[in-house]
């Protein structure tokens, strides 16, 4: 291990002998009694030296070897250290241009997963993951681009037809893509977002899955699927035991969730049944909301800022799940309103009339490098 102070944390002097690492209260740590020699020793903890070399360098600064070792142990307990070897190996799985693009993501992961080497393990797990996005509208295309930029190994997008003006958004398709096949434009968008060169012949994000997806995102262009539950697709995914997430914008409301872990969390049918308990006409209304239904809006609304927010939040929930953390869209969903900009989380318990819990399983989610952690 080559210890390094986490570069994502700001270094702030509270006074002449008190150094604070981190500005956000959750991650902030204070190191006291920092004289000139200790400050110089801290500067050496940059990932270029292993433990014994660091201790020897501390002795040359006039510090006792045991004192330097105590400093390193205290920094480790305070979650201020990372392992430069592990970080280098994790980035080494990617082409050089992409390594630089993933640097900020890895720095963020080092704060969320604080143990030395843990962030690198999480990034390696993302590189092995496969996510399929069904829908290449304002939400789906942007969501796929964000996932590819975040280190997901394979991101595929499935949709038919050609890009229209209402599919375009700053984080997704630019207006220059209008008229192109959605599937082709989405594949190229994923490649660009991941920093993949067109001459790179190795497997690239979006180049096609090597196996079944780890998770599927249902993001239909009309947005109605976030409410209708896309019954046929959802049942297919439930039978296959495939985790899936709903995301979309309908009228002024953006929806992220539920993220369904088959057999372990509430599903789209639970949401439909819960709404039916409140409004007995809901199933009839849902049938008319379908893409080819008679009640479908003549000109579907999809605010650019709202669609981008939904895509970003949905991508974050996907990454959390793949990283081994259960996001709030499990057994619930999040709503974002264009009317007030508020994000609300609504709880979704399993419905007693839905069969998805009749053979319930312990709630589990992927962990780093493909391991599985129980809930």
Structure description:
The protein contains 13 helices and 14 strands. It is of the alpha+beta class and 375 residues long. It folds into two domains: 3-84, Outer Surface Protein A, domain 3, CATH 3.90.930.60; 129-374, 3-Layer(aba) Sandwich (Rossmann fold), CATH 3.40.50.720. The strands form four sheets. A seven-stranded mixed β-sheet has the order 7-6-8-9-10-11-12. A three-stranded antiparallel β-sheet has the order 2-3-4, with no helix packed on it. Strand 11 and strand 12 (343-347) form a beta hairpin. Helix 4 runs parallel beside helix 6 and helix 5 (96-112) crosses helix 6 (118-128). It is elongated and about 80 Å long. The two termini are 31 Å apart.
């Amino acid at each position: 291990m080559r210890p390094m102070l986490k570069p994502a944390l700001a270094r702030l002097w509270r006074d002449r002998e008190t150094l604070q690492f981190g500005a956000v209260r959750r991650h902030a740590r204070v190191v006291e009694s920092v004289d000139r020699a200790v400050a110089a020793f801290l500067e050496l903890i940059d990932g270029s030296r292993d433990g014994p070399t660091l201790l020897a360098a501390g002795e040359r600064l006039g510090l006792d070897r045991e004192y330097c070792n105590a400093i390193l142990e205290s920094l480790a307990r305070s979650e201020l250290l990372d392992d430069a070897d592990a970080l280098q190996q994790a980035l080494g799985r990617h082409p050089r241009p992409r390594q630089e693009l993933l640097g900020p993501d890895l720095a963020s992961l080092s704060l969320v997963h604080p143990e030395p080497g843990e962030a690198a393990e999480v990034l390696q797990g993302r590189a092995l993951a496969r996510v399929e996005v069904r829908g290449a509208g304002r939400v789906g295309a942007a969501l796929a681009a964000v996932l590819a930029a975040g280190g997901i190994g394979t991101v595929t997008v499935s949709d038919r037809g050609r890009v229209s003006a209402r599919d375009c958004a700053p984080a997704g398709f630019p207006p220059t893509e209008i008229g192109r096949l959605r599937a082709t434009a989405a594949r190229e968008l994923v490649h660009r977002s991941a920093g993949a060169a067109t001459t790179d012949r190795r497997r690239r994000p979006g180049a096609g899955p090597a196996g079944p997806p780890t998770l599927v995102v249902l993001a239909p262009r009309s947005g109605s699927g976030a409410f209708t539950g896309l019954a046929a697709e959802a049942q297919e995914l439930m039978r296959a035991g495939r985790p899936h997430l709903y995301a979309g914008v309908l009228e002024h409301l953006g929806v992220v969730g539920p993220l369904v872990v088959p057999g372990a969390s509430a599903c789209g049918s639970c949401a439909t049944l819960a709404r039916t308990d409140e409004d007995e006409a809901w199933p009839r209304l849902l049938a008319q909301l379908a893409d080819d239904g008679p009640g479908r809006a003549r000109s579907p609304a999809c605010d650019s800022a709202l669609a981008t927010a939904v895509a970003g939040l949905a991508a974050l929930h996907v990454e959390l799940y793949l990283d081994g953390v259960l996001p709030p869209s499990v057994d619930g969903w999040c709503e974002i309103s264009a009317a007030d900009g508020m994000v609300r989380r609504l709880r979704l318990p399993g419905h007693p009339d839905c069969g998805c819990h009749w053979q319930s399983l312990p709630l589990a989610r992927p962990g780093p490098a493909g391991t599985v952690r129980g809930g």
